[in-house]
Each structure stands twice: as C-alpha cells, then as structure tokens.
Amino acid sequence: ENPINTMFRSRFPVPSISSIVRYINVEAAAKYELEAVVRSISLAGSRRSRNLREAGGKLPGVLYGVDRDRNIVKIMVAIDEKSILKELRLRGQSFENTLYKLTLKDESDVNSEKPVQTHLVVPRQTQFSPLTDKPIAVNFLKYEPGSRLRIPIIFVNSDQSVDLRRGCFVVRVNQYVECVCDGEVPESILLDLSTAQKGDVFRLNSLQLPPQVRPSKNVPPDYVVCVIKSTKTK
Description:
This protein has five helices and 14 strands. It has a six-stranded mixed beta barrel with strand order 1-3-2-6-5-4. By secondary structure, the protein is of the alpha+beta class.
C-alpha cells in the first residue's frame, strides 16, 4: 500500500455513519452538473495546455482531494470552456463555492454515454488571462461536509440606513469569509446594513450565517467585513 495513503488514513479516521448520511444528503443537494474528460499525465505542460485551449476549446485542470477511503485523488481533466463561461456568468462570485456533480469521461471514448466516474466537487483556483479576462484553467476539489469554503459576503438593506442615504459610504475590507459547511453550501453570506451609522465597524458577529454553517478556525473573532465612512472630513 502507498505510504502516503497510510498516513492519510491514520490522520483521518473512517467516517461515522452520521457523517456518511450527511455526505449523501449534500450530494443529493448538488443541483448543477459539469462534464469533463480525463487527460493523460503525459499531456501535462503549459504548451500542451495552450494547445488544448486554442485547438479544442477546452480548459485544463486537476481534480484533487481524498476519497471516502482517504486515498489521495489527483486526476488531470479537460473541460469545455463554454460551460465554464456559462457558469461564471450565472454564479458570479459564488462560482467557487457552488457544489457540482462532475462526470468524468474517458478521453478515448468521449461520445460514450457511460461515465468513467462521478465526483461531488467545488471549483478551485480558477485562473484568468490578464489580457482577455477569460478563464484559462480551473481545478476542482472533492467536497465533503466539513470542507473549508470561501463564501462571498453580500450587503443588503443599505437603502434603509439613514446615514448611507445622507452620503456616507461603505468601505469593504473583506469580500469573502472562510466557512465550514456541514450541510448545504450557501451561495453567499448576508450582512444587513439597515442600521449602519457613520463610524460603524461590521465584524464577523454581524454576518447572518445559515444553519450548519460556521466560520473556520482561520477566521479571527475580530474579522472586519466593512467600515462606514463619511464624505465630510475636518
């Protein structure tokens, strides 16, 4: 047996029945699907990745993580560029915390309806061209309940704040908050600004976290989301 797999099994014990049930529930909640082709490891490299994008209209990527037996998973994939562009338009900032059912097919038999395997994933490390702002690569992380995800923070009810209507403005400090999700993954975390006043500092405890969603240990209690500033200066 691979010594790396043995190390992972020792550090991550076999999940309990309750965690397996949570996994099944979350997998059933994956509303969106993507298809990718398994690539050979011999096709790695920046030149071949560029040829893949230019000639085939596909984006290179890697599916990585650990499976339920705590074996390391690392699979090179290629995914249709148009499908990623569509998801980026629809999901926006929530793209990398959206659960997908990723169906993998064999590169030698793409037209076959029989998938090689399926995985519950979240996109990771999407790379964009600095010239065209189009995606040039996207990786996928195998998801299990308890995984850490960066969830975007959305401001709501700012029009109900008296000071914001009178000319104060919001200075955003952090756009995302890293959370651990034990159930469904929210598209965003809401911050209510209806009571915002000049000089207010909104921190982690101001966020409206859904059930079974909690900040990860990497997020400090004094995590600042935004500050309310005034246009008037002395």
